[in-house]
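Q: My labmate handed me this sequence with no annotations at all. I'd like to see what the chain might look like in three dimensions before we decide whether it's worth expressing. Could you predict it?
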Amino acid sequence: MKIGIYGYGNLGRGVEAALYNAEDMEVFGIFTRRSPDSVKSVYETKVYPANDVLKYKNDIDVMIICGGSATDLPTMTPDLAKDFCVVDSFDTHAKIGEHFLNVDATAKSGNKTAVISVGWDPGLFSIARIYAGAVLPNGKDNTFWGRGVSQGHSDAIRRIEGVADARQYTVPIEETVKKVRSGDMSDFTARQKHLRECYVVAKEGADKQRIEKEIKEMPNYFADYDTVVNFISAEELKKNHNALPHGGTVIRSGSTGKNNENSHTVEYSLKLDSNPEFTGSVLVAFARAIKRMNDKGDFGCKTAFDIPPAMLSPLSDEELRHSLL
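A: Here is what I predict for the chain of 325 residues:
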């Protein structure tokens, strides 16, 4: 199947790397809003201007959209879903329902299939939560992210006027993690579960006090957390914050028995050297599923909950039963 990459930042490069490791897929090309001549692919993938994307709608089986959730994906995904089967990693949890409806309408209008919000969270962690919750209905989920760089939150900071570059680390509160692992099913607030550390390079002459205020008051990203903002030089950011590690854990605590006398804990964890490369690998797996679903006439928008696990794998059903079941 032929796959297009729409956007070529860190995530786009991660998707490209995953595609060149997928034997059943072929990279059609990269579509960029920048000048194509300025975009250099380490794999020498062909680069096209984003404005020309519709010229190739009959040549591409799935378009993987690699934009930011703050401002890119809310318009990019529904617009492209009119003409392409699409995959995105939209991760603004509070707005997923709205995004789903927008993409569903345009995908159905063109008999296309889309899947949104598939990375590791939302995405793989969402699947972990639904399985654990189904098995332990009398229980509670807690999800911890980090310590690691959040691409979406870093991108949101970079969109603030006066910001040249930024990295945002999500840091679990270890005391709360220990309580959850011990079976504590209290209702912990976002502030009790995570700290947000921001490292910001301000443009020359920028109002740092205003930037810090905008970061700390940003809804859906920072307003509900204790947030630390550190202003540093571009050189320090490149030296000390150039990598993009991440990870996290979903913990389901629950009980069974007539009097709930038996306690159980289900835990699913990830530790990632490269958040964008891992997220790109997830997007590629879901692109495989979306192509198969579209071939069967299953149109409209989907989430991770709607995709049968076997459709994600390059293995045949027989191979899956033999090797993994």
